[in-house]
Amino acid sequence: MKIDVKPFEEGVQRMTVHLDRDDYAQSVEEELKKLRKKVQMPGFRPGKVPVSLIRKQYGESVKAKVIQKMVSAKIDEYIKTNKLLLLSNIIPVNDSAWKEELNKENPEFIYEFAPVPEFSFPLEKLKDIKRYKVEVSDKSLEDYIQYQREVKGDWVKADKFEEGVIMFFDVKPKEGKEDKPVRLFATFNEVKDNEKALKILQKLAKGETYEATYKYVNGLLKLDGKAQDILEKLGIAPADKIILSMEAMEKNQPAELNAEFFNKVFLGDEIETLEQFREEIKNILEKTYINNERQYYFDRLTKRLMETVNIHWPKGHFRRLYRYNNPEITDKELDEILNEDYVKGVKFNAILDTYFRQYDVELTPGDIQKTAREKASQMLRQYGAFQMIQSEEQLDGLALKWMEESEDFASDVRFQARVNKFFEHLEQQLDVPYETISSDEFLKLLENQSEKQTAEQEA
User: What would be the CATH architecture of the domain defined by 2-113?
Assistant: First the structure.
């Protein structure tokens, strides 16, 4: 048995596996003899069925099984011997001719694959990406304290239009259904500079109603984002007239800076003074900025790697791969699947595979356990159930249970563990010194990054 590999198209190679009868004949006979011991046929004692009858009835299926196993093993051996990394699964080219080839004494089987091209990591091109030690500014500290005061504060009736006021409206169709009014809201901050909107609000504040098309009212008052969906359920189209009335105006009354408020923010901690509270808030922000800076750094590393590492995208191969697994898939569906994000994902996986091999990095059970614990903790916090966890052991047990029961959870954990390991190792390799900046400056960097990403997406 031998393998021939030849280039097929850019980034894709084709592999032909050649078999001679001597490669598989003995294994087929051995399998038939094993089968003979199990097969029962009328007129023969168990284990005494003639091999000729076994061969006649089961020969083709046994031969197919043996050859398929041998071919798979040979391909695995080739990949291992040549230290190949692949962009995707190997796919058979002549799958429809499989039975025809099996009838031949010296069959051939053709496969195609897309190897990851060899490249060296451009470490020198990554070392100029800056690291930051973020110091919490007084403004960031006060802004976060004010945020917590508003979150823990009360909503009270407002008697005038001012910053932070939320206005609640009742909306009903001018004609047609006698449905109950729909309650929607708008924020004064959104409309405070619009003279037409202010005139309407003054009228509504006096207890009067206002009639116009929904489209016009929404354009002026910037109603609740879900408003149109709600109104459509009532049969109100954007061009239909509605009757609008104001039911309430409320504003947030921030919580007082006292021990009761401090302990609402830090449940279970006994904090009595403003100084203690400020110190605790500062500690939280410092940890948050450490995590945010690290993510900001990793995002820029990823972008630079994707720009500098040249990995050809074999579009035709991936289309054939998806058609092999789903023959009924349409061109439109393929285009939707093989989009820009998919391409980036494949290239990033290739970068991970290559890095792990070049630097002999291994993912350990401890890495996976740590990531599973972090993901489980994140999910519990997201659904407000983290307080149910009493210990690290309980959290680990829950993470392990989810790993065993949910393949999606386990797959996400394994991938994220690889990503974490990659960045941790790369971070050590680069060893970039930190530049100290204020949290205000850092937030500006994040804002600029977000604006660039938005502009790139729009382009």
Answer: 2-Layer Sandwich (3.30)
* Contact by Cβ (8 Å): 1, 27: no
**Residues with Cβ within 8 Å of residue 447, at least 6 apart in sequence:** none
For 64, list phi and psi in degrees, rounded to 5.
-60, -45
Interval 195-219: pLDDT, tens: 999 999 999 999 999 999 888 888 8
How far does CA 102 lie from the centroid of its chain?
43
Write b or e for each residue in 157-195: b if 16 or more Cβ atoms lie within 10 A of its Cβ, otherwise e: ebeebeeebbbebbbbbeeeeeeebbebebebeebeeee
Token pair belonging to 151: 């979150």
Residue 182 contacts residue 271 (beta carbons within 8 Å):
no
**Spatial distance between the Cα atoms of 224 and 187, rounded to a whole number of angstroms:** 9
Helix spans in 247-273 (H)? 259-265
Residue 272, helix vs strand vs coil: coil
The answer to whether residues 233 and 182 touch, using CB atoms and an 8 Å cutoff, is no
Instruction: Single out the residue of 190, 220, 215 nearest to residue 203, CA to CA.
Output: 220
Predicted confidence (pLDDT) per residue in 9-54, tens digit: 999 999 999 999 999 999 998 988 888 888 878 878 777 788 888 8
SS3 category, 248:
strand
Check if the beta carbon of residue 278 is closer than 8 Å to that of residue 141.
Answer: yes
Instruction: Say whether pLDDT at 178 is over 60.
Output: no
Q: Estimate the crossing angle of helix 365-382 against helix 392-405, to 10 degrees.
A: 100
**What is the pairing mode between strands 166-173 and 2-9?**
unpaired
CA angle 114, 115, 118 (to 5 degrees): 145
Q: How many whole angstroms separate alpha carbon 273 and alpha carbon 262?
A: 8
CA distances from 458 to 19, 415, 451, 453, 454 (A): 54, 29, 11, 9, 6
- Residue 250 pLDDT > 60: yes
In three-state secondary structure terms, 193 is coil
Element (H or E) spanning 92, and its range? strand 91-92
Q: Are 247 and 168 in contact (CB under 8 A)?
A: yes
Do β-strands 91-92 and 12-18 pair in parallel, antiparallel, or remain unpaired? unpaired
Burial class (CB in 10 A: 0-12, 13-18, 19+), 140: buried
Say whether pTM exceeds 0.70.
yes
Nearest to 299 by CA among 343, 368, 348, 367: 348
The C-alpha torsion from 109 through 113 and 118 to 121, rounded to 10°, is -150
The answer to whether the beta carbons of residues 167 and 249 sit under 8 Å apart is yes
Q: How many CB atoms lie under 10 A from the CB of residue 6?
A: 8
Q: Where are the domains of the chain?
A: 2-113, 123-140+261-310+361-458, 154-253
